[in-house]
């Protein structure tokens, strides 16, 4: 059984995709990816504090009330700068 995928005749096996090598005169530098030895500092949870914040106060009880307030402010103050 043959696969429906074919490699283009102008490319070597395993070298397909975009952009093709040599398609433009300017070659971009390649990046070598390898394993990196990195140190990760782990600190005990006692160094941190976890708490809650108070809820923020909202001027308006609903969205329509907020839009009404904003219309009134527009009439008195105009555009914000």
Automatic annotation (TrEMBL):
One GO biological process term is: mRNA 3'-end processing
Which segments of the protein form a coiled coil according to its record?
none
Single GO term (MF): mRNA binding
Q: Where is the composition biased (Polar residues)?
A: 1-14, 25-35
Q: Residues annotated as region Disordered?
A: 1-35
Q: What is the superkingdom listed in this entry's lineage?
A: Eukaryota
One GO location term (cellular component) = mRNA cleavage factor complex
One Pfam family, please name it: NUDIX_2
Specify the protein name: Uncharacterized protein
Task: Give the organism the record lists.
Answer: Apolygus lucorum
């Amino acid at each position: 059984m043959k696969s429906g995928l074919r490699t283009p005749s102008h490319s070597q096996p395993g070298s397909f995709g975009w952009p093709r090598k040599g398609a433009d005169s300017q070659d971009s530098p390649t990046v070598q990816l390898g394993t990196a030895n990195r140190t990760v500092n782990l600190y005990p949870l006692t160094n941190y504090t976890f708490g809650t914040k108070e809820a923020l106060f909202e001027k308006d009880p609903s969205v329509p009330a907020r839009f009404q307030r904003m219309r009134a402010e527009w009439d008195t103050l105009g555009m914000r700068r």
